[in-house]
Amino acid sequence: MGFLATSASICYFQVTGTLNPENKFQECADKLAAEGFRSIEQSADELSTGWVQFDDYDSSEFSSLHSCWRDHYLCFSLRQDRRRIPAALLKREIIRLCEKFLEQQPTLKYVPKSEKEQIRDQARSSLLARTLPTPSFYDVIWDTDQQLLRFCSLGQNTIDSFQGLFHQTFPGLRLQIFHPLARAVKILPEQLRDSLQQANKSQTENILEQIEANRWLGTDFLQWLFYRTLNSDSRYQVTASGPLLDKQPFTAFLDNRLVLIGGGQEGLQKIVVAGPQDHYLEVRAALQQGKQIEEATIHLQQNEDDGWKLTLKGERFQFGSFRTPMIRPEKDPNDDPQAEAEAAFFTKIAVIEEGEQMFNSLLKTFLELRLGEQWPKEQTAILTWLKE
User: Fold this and answer.
1) Cα–Cα–Cα angle for 180, 354, 307, nearest 5°?
2) How far, in Å, CA of 267 to CA of 72, rounded?
3) Which residues pair with 11 in a beta bridge?
């Protein structure tokens, strides 16, 4: 689903490097147009990837600044058109061409290997030419003030394609996954960053190593929130920066779905617990056995009417199915469609940032405890409760 839908999965990146402040608006539009999407409908190509406009997936011209800029947000979309041939259909076409070949070569009983490879390529090319490409669209919202980029997909192949095309389009910039350690550094006060660095288990600055070595950030956070969900009133206050007022109250809790992983006698085991639970006895038993919560659905609420929901991927802090309060713009036939589209965007980005601010506040509350002197006491209380 796109960014403006009720829910969207978001992968977060930090952008390093700077845009030309004197001409960044026109320069970005020109760079996006240079790598714009090119249709393959009239060809037999299997794949085409390029940028299209955020509000018009059929346009890759970026002829005006408005086509990609919303204030300080650079908005565009990745489009991928791919032809897919069903395996059964390809097999039938190969058999048909092999039979035709043997009819023309009556002295042969079998198709030679070299000929069969050519027939396979011929069958594939023939079917590709008769197959319409299937388009896919993935929105990109780049906050150029915060250098924070939101990409609306969690598929690894899609993320890899996006990163490759982004670096090709903006060669002076670099994307880095906004992983748990990087997020923690950004939201923590200066006095706690030394404690975080001491807890950092990575030996290098390599991003993948930092993610793998510090999986404890996700697993400890989700286990703590699981404990708090069942043993507290789930009330918190806004303490991270963002559009909401400082110390504004909100509630946060886990519900609906948890994914646990851990080693067993037969290798890595995965447990999925879904649906409403009274006491989560199955989850508590799994945690006692050494398994860890890898993924969970988090609910954030300001009141009964305004609620956010996301599935947190604990390894990288990606937001799956990030659902925000419903946006119901007032329709007036006399309104300018462009102005309505802009209003919908700014309303959506506002509620997205509010949800992110509450999540960051929740994470900050955990980190202040996790890196402080009270953590051993809290950890003991959690372990004691699991054994009850």
Assistant:
1) 100
2) 49
3) 151
Look up the pTM and report it.
0.90
Query: What pLDDT, on a 0 to 100 scale, did the predictor assign at position 334?
Result: 67
Token code pair at residue 34? 């240079």
**Single-letter amino acid, residue 163:** Q
CA pair distance 256, 260, nearest whole angstrom: 14
* Cβ-based neighbour number of residue 176 at 10 Å: 14
Q: Which residues of 22-51 are buried (b: 16+ CB within 10 A; e: fewer)?
A: eeebeebbebbbebbbeebeeeebbebbbb
pLDDT digits (tens, 9 = 90+) for 115-167: 999 999 989 888 888 889 999 999 999 999 999 999 999 999 999 999 999 99
- Residues 149/16, Cβ–Cβ less than 8 Å: no
Distance of alpha carbon 372 from alpha carbon 380, whole angstroms: 14
**Predicted local distance difference test score (pLDDT) of residue 7:** 93
- For the record, the structure tokens of 315 come out as 């390894």
Whole-number Å distance between alpha carbons of 50 and 28: 14
Structure tokens, 87? 């395996």
Domain limits, the chain: 7-82+134-177, 87-129, 213-387
Q: Nearest CA to 324 among 6, 73, 1, 103?
A: 6
Cβ–Cβ under 8 Å, residues 6 and 323: yes
Q: Are 25 and 69 in contact (CB under 8 A)?
A: yes
